[in-house]
Structures are given as structure tokens and as C-alpha cells.
Amino acid sequence: MATHGSISARWRSTRAPSGASDAELFAEGLHDILARQPGQHMANRLAAFAGLTMGGPAGTGSTRRRIADSLGWIAQDHLRALHPRVWALAPMPGRAHPAETKAEDLVRRGRIRAMSSLAEFYAPALETGRRLVFGPDGMSLLRDG
Asked: What superkingdom heads the lineage (predicted)?
């Protein structure tokens, strides 16, 4: 156990800016993962983690809220297409793992989870008449009209 703690301390002392919070360190790790694994599968896994697993009620400025807010930059900078199965299988606090085994049920559940998470995160922009669009350059918020 002591070795694990010293590795963590060494990692923090060489990687983290002075005074960095756990949320900042975690976000830095998310950036590193996406730089090394830039594919859509990983982008969907991390977006689902931020939006579903870490999303939901959390205090403003809390570590949980700051990690959940990573959904924004992950979606805008990395998400090009939704992988519904990834979203369907992402853990959600307080909910049992989905029992469906049919592929079409998983796809439907994943699509609903992904769109709900993104709609909740981007609600203020959507309420002003913008819409979410996925394209080859990523997700964009477009204004209708």
C-alpha cells in the first residue's frame, strides 16, 4: 500500500501544477487519455462517464460537478458520433445495470441516455433556440434561423 501512495505522490509532484485540485488532475487525465486514444469509442466512454456516471445533482464548484462538466469539452472537441451501446452500458449511480440483452434495446437505451445527458448539459443553449448537431468536425451548437 505504501508503494501505491508514493507513486501517487510522485505523480502529483511531477505532473500537477502547484495547488491543482483533484478535479483539475482528473480533467488533465481525461485530456491525456483522449490524446492517446482519440477514437470515437473512447470519446463516447468518457462522455458517458462524465454525463451519466458523474452527472446529476452536485453542488456548484464541487469536484463531482467539475468532473461532470467535462462532458462539454469532450463532446465539443472529441465526439463525432454517438455509440449508443457504450452509453447504455455506462454505470449510473443508484441504478442497476440494464438487464436488456437484445441489441436493439441497448441501442435505444443508449441513444436516450446520450441525448438526455447532452440535452441536460446544454439546456441553457437549447432554450435560446440553438440545436446540437454532430458532424465530421465534432459537435456544434447551431442557431436556427
From this structure: Bacteria
